[in-house]
Amino acid sequence: MMKNNRSTPLGKLALSVGVMLLVVPTVQAAEAPAAPQVDAKAYVLMDYDSGKILAEGNADTRLDPASLTKIMSSYVIGQAMKAGKIKPDDLVTVGKDAWATGNPVLRGSSLMFIKPGDQVPVSELNKGIVIQSGNDASIALADFVAGSQDSFVGLMNNYGKSLGLQNTHFLTVHGLDAEGQYSTARDMALLSQALIRDVPDEYALHKEKEFTFNKIRQINRKPPAVEHQPECGWYQNRLHRRGWA
User: Fold this and answer.
1) pTM to 2 decimal places
2) Signal sequence: where (predicted)?
């Protein structure tokens, strides 16, 4: 059984992939509720400690991961910090590719609102990715970690293989539209489990509700249904129309 090194009064962690990461108390098997009715193309509910799937629907159907892509981006960043390759106080010089005004791909999407030439600490860009789902922050930090977006995507896919994600392929660092990019609810559950287990300091950011950058208050984009849960939340942005739970 996996050990959960996070301090929590609750016994079991479940992953409802696509929308939320939820802590639920341990219950006896006889008390287990019926499988939920979920209005989604695919969903998975996993017990963190055992990895047991408690409920699922179309768990291996390939879908566009959209902003759930940033769970893998977060994992790669967490591993880079864990290995000492980057530090929270390292300053990142923002390039033109991370500038929404100069990059049509980013227009109208979730942003941290950084500009070319800005020097931003790794810790702030990381919050921009995790809390705000900032696509510009994703590009800036990917360039810093790996030298380019393409190289960072390579790291994402390499980690995916090492984690046993059999139906996942990333093409972008942020999850914006890209033909041929896909994942499944099952793979996202495994990835979420790995993020909590392997890079707990990185996972802790996913529980923060907001942060402020350049006097702009950024709100965590977790679903309203789990705002009361102190332990969690993955990305709300654009998920429902893509079919995730």
Assistant:
1) 0.82
2) 1-29
